[in-house]
Amino acid sequence: MSDPTEESVRSEARAWLEANWSPDLGLVEWRHKLADSGWGVPTWPTDWYGKGYSDPLGRVIEEEFDRIGAVSVARTGIRNLAAATLLEHGTKMQKEKFLLRILTGEDTWCQLFSEPGSGSDLAGASTRADKKGNKWIINGQKVWTTSAHHAQYGLLLARTDWDVPKHKGLSYFILDIEQPGVEVQPLRQMNGHASFNQVFFTDAVIEPEFQVSELGDGWKVATTTLMNERRGADGLRRYAKATEKPGRAYAEEAEEIAHQLEPYKWYPQRAGRVDLVLQRARETGKINDPAIRQEIAKLLTMSKSTEWTARRARAAADLGLPQGPEGSIGKLAASNVARKAALVHTMLSGADAMLTGENSTMGGVIAEIFVSTPATSIAGGTDEIQKNIISERVLKLPKEARTDTDRPFRDVPRNIVT
Ligand SMILES: Cc1cc2nc3c(=O)[nH]c(=O)nc-3n(C[C@H](O)[C@H](O)[C@H](O)COP(=O)(O)OP(=O)(O)OC[C@H]3O[C@@H](n4cnc5c(N)ncnc54)[C@H](O)[C@@H]3O)c2cc1C
Predict the structure, then answer these.
(1) 343-364 average pLDDT score
(2) CA of residue 11 relative to chain centroid, distance
(3) 307 occurs within a structural domain
(4) Residues 6+ apart with CB under 8 A from 236
(5) Are residues 311 and 332 in the same domain?
(6) Ligand 1 centre and the CA of 256: distance in Å?
(7) Per residue in 119-133, pLDDT tens?
(8) What does the pLDDT read at residue 3?
(9) Which residue's C-alpha comes closest to atom 38 of ligand 1?
(10) Domain total of the chain
(11) What is the DSSP letter of 313?
């Protein structure tokens, strides 16, 4: 069967939304309708709440949501990584139990990957999962775990075999966070917010049916999660805008945003706020300074070319082409733009860029940019790791020397007692 045309999808979506959307519905009730009809996640498979449409058709439907002002399914944060991972690797039972509540926003998820001894070297994870009877018993520690303080479930990468090379001894689990063996401790960042945590496991329990994919397949499953993270699937930008329009669904969505997204309100600042640069240059009169104008021009050029690179990657994906170098350089480019934007903002605001609080420049936003942009160079894989990926996989340069991949993980020297 050939793909439906853009016009037919647009008119079908429009007709369905006009017949079904009402701001007076409860938020969860409306999202159930979206899941049941396939219009909430049209790019998902038809068996699982979608319509199997391509990304470009998905965007046409989003335009129709925007046109009528309908609230979407819950699409912020790490729940998107959980959905993408479970759609690809989850069992039928796991999809049935978790996907719908992800879409309705009833469950929040976190990603339990990084550890004190393994962030960039993710495959060096030492959190252990041991089989006792038919259950998995988890011991160890994770860190930088965004959302763990209000999550119900975590995507856990844990070591199940110490006698094989490190990438082969990992397994992937769904962990119930709200159990006695899990202790979540929030961490305060230098920008004053507390969006991530350290998480300790002491004989935490996982039922066998919450193992994702086969035993020892954890690295493969984690790669799916990470690929979606690097494509920005866990972003908060587009779907996190509350509206003051009247109606129960809008009010409940605004409450959800205020409650669940409060710890992440610094996220726009971590990208550098290029959108504020010209406004600030005019307000401060620095637009007339030739040296600063040069820096603004460089920043806007970098930002535009990064955006075009992202668009090329999207166009290639829409045509069904394999991911090219655009994908690999996107994250690094975003990090360079964020760093440059922080520099330009400090040139524009001078010493005021260091002031925080309501009475400071733009209510503290400029200072927040300054202390939040470093996150962009770290989260989801650091700049150095992106450079390694580009040099080894895109440019085919010789691989980094490794001494830890050809022996049992048990024999790999490391600084954590296990
Ligand atoms: C905002 C934010 C949110 C995050 N959320 C989560 C989350 O939800 N879940 C989660 O599991 N983790 C999360 N992280 C953690 C993040 O994935 C790690 O911080 C990141 O992978 C780096 O690991 P690390 O901090 O252990 O640094 P390390 O790996 O110790 O790196 C330290 C330095 O050494 C460099 N380096 C390391 N290895 C190499 C190499 N081979 N070649 C060259 N240089 C190298 C790094 O680039 C870095 O500069 C988050 C981080 C941030 C900033």
Answers:
(1) 92
(2) 32
(3) yes
(4) 76, 77, 261, 264, 267
(5) yes
(6) 29
(7) 999 999 999 999 999
(8) 74
(9) 120
(10) 3
(11) H
Residues 12 and 72 grouped into a single domain? yes
Instruction: Give the DSSP H or E segment for 131.
Output: strand 128-132
- Do 373 and 353 contact (CB within 8 A), yes or no? no
Residues 6+ apart with CB under 8 A from 316: 323, 324, 326
Helices 365-372 and 325-349: angle between axes, nearest 10 degrees: 140
Structural domain including 130 reads: 87-230
By CB atoms closer than 10 A (0-12, 13-18, 19+), residue 285 is exposed
Q: Please state the length of the chain.
A: 418
pLDDT reported for residue 323: 72
72 and 100 share one domain:
no
Same domain, 123 and 194: yes
Dihedral sign computed on CA atoms, order 399, 405, 411, 412: positive
Distance 117 CA to ligand 1 centre (A): 10
d(CA 38, CA 32): 10
Pocket around ligand 1: residues whose beta carbon is below 6 Å from it? 110-111, 113-114, 119-120, 144-146, 196, 375, 378-379, 381-382, 384-385, 388, 400
Residue with tokens 């109606």: 247
| Residue type (1 letter), 255 | E
194-198, 223-227, 292-296, 366-370: least confident range: 223-227
Tokens representing 17? 């939304």
